Amino acid sequence: MSGRHLVVVGGGMVAHRLVEALRSRDTDAAWRITVLAEEPRMPYDRVALTSYFSGRDPADLSLGDPTLWDDPSVSLRKGVTVAAVDTAAKTVRTTRDEIIGYDELVLATGSYAFVPPIKNSDAEGCFVYRTIDDVAALRVYVERLRAEGKDVNGVVVGGGLLGLEAAGALRALGAGTTVVEFAPRLMALQVDEGGGSALARLIRGLDIEVLTSTQTTRVKTTSQGAARAMAVADGKDLPADVVVFATGVRPRDELGRAAGLEIGERGGVVVDEGCRTSVDGVWAIGEVACIESRVWGLIAPGYAMAEIVADRLLGGSATFPGADTSTKLKLLGVDVASFGDAFGATEGALDIVYADPVAGVYKKLVLSDDARTLLGGILVGDASAYSGLRPMVGRQLGADPASYLLPEGSAPAQLELPDDAPVCSCNNVSAGTIRCAVREEGCGDLKSVCGKTRAGTSCGSCLPIVKNLLNAELAAAGVEVSKALCEHFAMSRAELFDVVRVTGLRTFSSLVERHGTGRGCDICKPVVASILASLDPAGHVLDGERATLQDTNDHVMANIQKDGTYSVVPRIPGGEVTPEGLIAIGEVARDFGLYTKITGGQRVDLFGARIEQLPAIWKRLVEAGFESGHAYGKALRTVKSCVGSTWCRYGVQDSVGMAIALELRYRGLRSPHKIKLGVSGCARECAEARGKDVGVIATENGWNLYVGGNGGMTPRHAQLLASDLSDEQLLQAIDRFLMYYVRTGDRLQRTAVWINEIEGGLDHVRDVVLNDSLGIAADLDAAMAAHVDSYVDEWQATLQDPEKLARFVSFVNAPDQPDADLRYVVERNQPRPATPAERGQLEPVLLAGPRLEVRR
């Protein structure tokens, strides 16, 4: 094959970026590329390693377009380790004694996990957290211990990024977890003392113990040589069946050292601003490179180095632009971000701090001495402002800086970014590049913009701001930003809702015939089903055509689980239940062999029901006074409450009674997304009402009403809508708020996002709800009254309809035959689905009746 030969030693994320960049620019195929990858797989996303524990296959982590490796100019050799480099002969020698010549060589060997020099750190049960093989070995070991009936305790040594990732992995595997950090706070390189304190509080709230300023001394072992405890310098031994060392990384510079390349004082192959080493023809990029007297352990600088080398190999003169150390990630469900001069090292720097310990939020902005120019910041618990603030580092904010730290919805409008402001640090994409892609390259949607510019294709944290830039540019060009629900309806969900309300159309077929095209899809059909349920609440979810429109869960009024069985959640209004009710639920779970779990919304979830068992389970629960909890629908889920004034010495109102009234009032209400409510009997907020779509907190004078909160992937703090409401005023305000949301919210849009995006924001919503600014209050009141008056329990209605009951079979041609492929094991005295490894050792579970037989 013609062309000069480039050999890349290393097959990680940075090596992948180099190959991708070089091939995209080398149109004449001047270079043929050989990648020598030590791991036996294609380059993968090491940043997303922890997702391996949530069911992702290792292949799912592969980077980029796999056809890159089919390019005739590229050869990826997996499972090949380079033993030596001969810079004089321009060859590399593999551990198999194969000699490979090169014209140019790039070292992209990355780093290795550092293990502190403590006794028995190599004992059985000790792991590092660096590669897929590392995390796979950890998973297998923990699952084996648990299969043996052990309650597994894990210790993670290191409280940085990887340490908290490892803690999340252990917790996901069901192990008790303790994080031990030598520094005085978690994530010491990213957050300050205040941020570390807030982070530790949030992590402890997830049942993970955190010990800071603690030194580990040795791993204590069993007589068989397996880990059993971790000894610390001051304090009791920590139980430790598993130890994960996440104490940082060191550059894999051994090839460079042996080849005589210049090595940095603290390791790493020294390179200049063009990523060239001290020897002609050899380059180094990523975590093995020491550039600007430092080794950078972040992906963005590595990608920048890869782009530089690609440019230089094709005759360019690109230089290292400096490292963007900004970090935004979600650790154990907790948002953490830091950017710029986060610690205020700049002379004269000022700090502005917002802290809400109750909500678990800490935010700090670092400003110049005149309090105008943004230098950096730290965000813990709520990093929603990150995408707008990070590109403004080094620029004047143009507004009161403190306003950017207030809870979401209170901040000023989106900043107008200059063209040279960086938007995507992973791929070095500026705001101007995004605008150019829209204006001059014809990109009209987020997918095409990202494909053209590469923005958002790595960590994805910049996608919100990319979307804002896209929409703003389209609007400036006079192009209407499409709000089409899908290819079958050119209108938004809110517009479609109005069409159905005004025209009186009550079938999908008539609606799509008159106002859409085609036959519909899995986007528009459930939306129409939800709209019909909102406007015609007397209809059953399985009536006629509606049954064919539903998502899987609505279709069977239960939540499908990973093994194909279902979970059943009876409603327990306000979390209040009698002893007889608890006994009835327990008897159903016992008789049908179901796994039971208390949910975060004060209910009991029953897992493992086969589809043909659902009616029998419902019948027992209905007879005991329960009804569908609608855990399967985009509807009201739960109304969580504390015990309030009924029992608590601090309670000032009857929070349980109000929670029950609200849940019975709004049960079955279909909406754009799920809705959760909370009612607290005093300002101590034990029901966590401000984390709900609707939060009610008692005062001496009545009730304070908060709206727009939620947990989930993007937590939001609810905002105050009204204060000191009477019972009647509270019900009316919530009625109108929910109905206005149902009418105008977009598909799968939580109330927090809806409030933020609706024109006028919270002030507008408050005017509509409290002041009837649109003149629709009576209509909203009537709609809610119709919903309340027409409520029918879906489970009970199904039990009374033979036609609906006929749907609940595992096999159409054998309605009484259960699925014989289900296999379970016992864990903590309850059944759970067997893992793939366990399934091969178990016989199918054949049922002779409603009682589940669980095999060990």
TrEMBL record:
It comes from the Bacteria. Residues 5-293 form the FAD/NAD(P)-binding domain. Residues 561-623 form the Nitrite/Sulfite reductase ferredoxin-like domain. It catalyses: hydrogen sulfide + 6 oxidized [2Fe-2S]-[ferredoxin] + 3 H2O = sulfite + 6 reduced [2Fe-2S]-[ferredoxin] + 7 H(+). Its EC number is 1.8.7.1. Transmembrane segments: none annotated. The keyword Electron transport does not apply. Residues 633-769 form the Nitrite/sulphite reductase 4Fe-4S domain. Pathway: Nitrogen metabolism; nitrate reduction (assimilation). Its cofactor is FAD; [4Fe-4S] cluster; [2Fe-2S] cluster; siroheme. Residues 326-390 form the NADH-rubredoxin oxidoreductase C-terminal domain. Keywords: 2Fe-2S, 4Fe-4S, FAD, Flavoprotein, Heme, Iron, Iron-sulfur, Metal-binding, Nitrate assimilation, Oxidoreductase, Thioether bond. InterPro entries: BFD-like_2Fe2S-bd_dom (IPR007419), BFD-like_2Fe2S-bd_dom_sf (IPR041854), FAD/NAD-bd_sf (IPR036188), FAD/NAD-binding_dom (IPR023753), FAD/NAD-linked_Rdtase_dimer_sf (IPR016156), NasD-like (IPR052034), NiRdtase/SiRdtase_haem-b_fer (IPR005117), Nit/Sulf_reduc_fer-like_dom_sf (IPR036136). It holds the Pfam family Fer2_BFD. Residues 423-471 form the BFD-like [2Fe-2S]-binding domain. Catalyzes the reduction of sulfite to sulfide, a step in the biosynthesis of sulfur-containing amino acids and cofactors. Belongs to the nitrite and sulfite reductase 4Fe-4S domain family. This is assimilatory sulfite reductase (ferredoxin). It comes from Kribbella koreensis.
